């Protein structure tokens, strides 16, 4: 296949990789011979790498810190490094923590935290939760526990405490406006809300309105070493069918739905990735994603904690800090990185502005090839220009995969063999997939099977080779239900138990390819899934807006950008800046429209529906089937579209 690219680090890239590595070793030997006694201090990447006097001390560190890529042969077992403390095969991750004891689990802005610290801090918090709820038996019986914490140790402690107390964890996101936080807490019927110290003021009026108790995390969680509580322990139970977590996702109805996964579902998500991506206790992952969706929670947090690895957490994404961590010499040294396409685009922009000298570029590539074993992209379609440029500067072909909140990860490119840019690989362990279309005969099975596959093979129905259809998924990672929405849950599955993803897919060249959302009403921007209907519903409350259609316009940086096509009240005016300032009070930042088009009338069919594909063709005729760099956001009133 002409489109196949070798995996960097496993199959050498022609030309530059040997040259970069030779340069790295040559400069290291030269510096060693010079016998300098003073090691230059690493300064800010943003200042020093532009000129570089790149510290040769760092070069020696880069050579000394090679991370071998763990190889897996013949379907060997996952690289688990300690037995689970609980024999229950569906037990959550915290039951394994004491087996890892004093190993470093997390590194954050507050310092280093061991597995033992996480366990005992979580146990103390779970006891506080049970006392607050007057739960003498130590089991909340699946009461929901909402929590709002930063990307640091407090998040893990709140999550584990929710599970230790027998509750269902409901993670909240700091950038959601109060009205949205209120909706999640009310919809989940949470019995208690946990909060990091920095979010108490934000949540107080919300919980007061709802009448839900608010419990702050102790300041000792952030820095003090934990001591074993003198009394109490985790109630032993059968975890398999108990609810574990509710993560909210936008659906085609426009209202966020709570996706309830069991502990068995979560374990299947984690162990499938541990096996496929060869996680081990030697891994160190850099975490820069939000922690209210499956990418940030499962792929980047629960997987490393499952095997005794280390997670280095940044409070939020910062391009300079990420490059410092990837290239840095401090321990623990990063060897795994996962992000959304938008982050990779921003990292490349920083690279272009600051890493301009050839020897700096050689250094960056050499360190990334030698030290980092795995780089993954997901949560949104990866533009080919981003993949190709990232490969040229780091030597890594990004591993693309496919998943959803409802199913975890379902498909993945291989770890150690050739990856095909644009494809999402093959099913993960335990996952079964089908590609189907509606049965036109309206009798018998309601759908026609195009292809069906699992981890080992895919069989294509004769006559349906490379035919597109809807992707269906079945397996132990598939969620239990949409919280408190039995009809939506029923409609999400076929009559024979397969989950309907709503995505169009095709099987060709031995790989699965996602063609796009069957519905155009879910916009994927910067790794977030945004309901166009929900944005429309809120924009229609603006006093100047009479009609609105929200569409996702292809964008190289963001995947898609949120664009509002608007009709105004007669005599009214509205600039993009005014709309953004108003919308920020109601919408999450990533859902605020990045473009505004003013029209006299939005065309609708006889049923009153808008054909959004027609709108895209009308206003962006040159943008079909192609991704272009994001445009700047105009702040002056836009001219009316023709």
TrEMBL record:
The keyword Secreted does not apply. GO terms for molecular function: malonyl-CoA synthetase activity. Its EC number is 6.2.1.76. The keyword Transcription does not apply. Residues 96-483 form the AMP-dependent synthetase/ligase domain. Residues 16-37 have a biased composition (Basic residues). InterPro entries: AMP-bd_C, AMP-bd_C_sf, AMP-binding_CS, AMP-dep_synth/lig_dom, ANL_N_sf. It is an enzyme of class 6 (ligase). Gene3D superfamilies: 3.30.300.30, N-terminal domain of ligase-like. Catalyzes the initial reaction in intramitochondrial fatty acid synthesis, by activating malonate and methylmalonate, but not acetate, into their respective CoA thioester. May have some preference toward very-long-chain substrates. This is Malonate--CoA ligase ACSF3, mitochondrial. It comes from Canis lupus familiaris (Dog). The gene is ACSF3.
């Amino acid at each position: 296949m002409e489109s196949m690219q070798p995996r960097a680090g496993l199959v050498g890239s022609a030309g530059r990789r040997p040259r970069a590595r030779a340069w790295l070793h040559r400069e290291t030997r030269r510096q060693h011979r010079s016998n300098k006694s003073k090691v230059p201090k690493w300064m800010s990447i943003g200042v020093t790498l532009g000129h570089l006097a790149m510290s040769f001390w760092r070069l020696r560190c880069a050579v000394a810190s090679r991370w071998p890529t763990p190889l897996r042969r013949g379907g060997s077992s996952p690289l688990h490094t300690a037995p689970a403390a609980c024999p229950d095969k569906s037990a959550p991750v915290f039951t394994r923590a004491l087996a890892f004891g004093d190993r470093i689990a997390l590194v954050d802005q507050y310092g280093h935290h061991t597995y033992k610290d996480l366990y005992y801090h979580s146990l103390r918090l779970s006891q506080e939760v049970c006392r607050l709820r007057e739960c003498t038996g130590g089991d909340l019986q699946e009461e929901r526990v909402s929590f709002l914490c930063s990307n640091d140790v407090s998040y893990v402690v709140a999550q584990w405490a929710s599970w230790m107390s027998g509750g269902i964890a409901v993670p909240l996101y700091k950038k959601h406006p109060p009205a949205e936080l209120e909706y999640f807490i009310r919809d989940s019927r949470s019995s208690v809300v946990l909060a990091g110290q920095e979010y108490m003021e934000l949540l107080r009026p919300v919980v007061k309105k709802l009448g839900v108790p608010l419990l702050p995390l102790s300041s000792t969680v952030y820095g003090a070493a934990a001591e074993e509580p003198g009394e109490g322990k985790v109630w032993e139970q059968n975890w398999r069918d108990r609810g574990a977590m509710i993560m909210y996702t936008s659906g085609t109805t426009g209202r966020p739905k709570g996706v309830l996964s069991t502990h068995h579902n979560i374990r299947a998500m984690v162990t499938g990735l541990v096996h496929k991506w060869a996680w081990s206790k030697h891994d160190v992952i850099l975490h820069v994603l939000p922690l209210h969706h499956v990418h940030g929670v499962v792929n980047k947090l629960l997987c490393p904690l499952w095997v005794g690895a280390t997670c280095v957490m940044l409070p939020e994404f910062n391009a300079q800090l990420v490059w410092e961590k990837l290239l840095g010499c401090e321990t623990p040294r990063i060897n795994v990185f996962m992000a959304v396409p938008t982050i990779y685009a921003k990292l490349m922009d920083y690279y272009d502005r600051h890493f301009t000298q050839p020897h700096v570029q050689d250094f960056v590539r050499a360190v990334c090839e030698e030290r980092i074993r795995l780089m993954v992209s997901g949560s949104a379609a990866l533009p080919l220009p981003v993949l190709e440029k990232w490969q040229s500067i780091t030597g890594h072909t990004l591993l693309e995969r496919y998943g959803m909140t409802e199913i975890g990860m379902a498909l993945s490119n291989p770890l150690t063999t050739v990856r095909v840019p644009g494809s999402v690989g093959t099913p993960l362990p335990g996952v079964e997939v089908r590609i189907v279309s509606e049965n036109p005969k309206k009798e018998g099975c309601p759908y026609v099977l195009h292809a069906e596959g699992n981890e080992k093979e895919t069989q294509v129905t004769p006559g349906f080779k490379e035919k597109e259809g809807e992707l269906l998924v079945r397996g132990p990672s598939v969620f239990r239900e949409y919280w408190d929405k039995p009809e939506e849950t029923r409609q999400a599955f076929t009559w024979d138990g397969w989950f309907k993803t709503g995505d169009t897919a095709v099987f060709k060249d031995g790989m699965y390819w996602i063609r796009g959302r069957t519905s155009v009403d879910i916009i994927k921007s910067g790794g977030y899934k945004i309901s166009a209907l929900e944005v429309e519903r809120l924009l229609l409350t603006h006093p100047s807006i009479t009609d609105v259609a929200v569409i996702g316009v292809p964008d190289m940086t963001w995947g898609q950008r949120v664009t509002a096509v608007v009709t105004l009240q007669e005599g009214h005016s509205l600039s993009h800046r005014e709309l953004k300032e108003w919308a920020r009070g109601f919408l999450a930042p990533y859902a605020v429209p990045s473009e505004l088009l003013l029209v006299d009338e939005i065309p609708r069919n006889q049923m009153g529906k808008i054909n959004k594909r027609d709108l895209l063709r009308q206003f962006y005729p040159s943008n079909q089937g192609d991704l272009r760099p994001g445009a700047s956001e105009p702040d002056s009133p836009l001219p009316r579209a023709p």
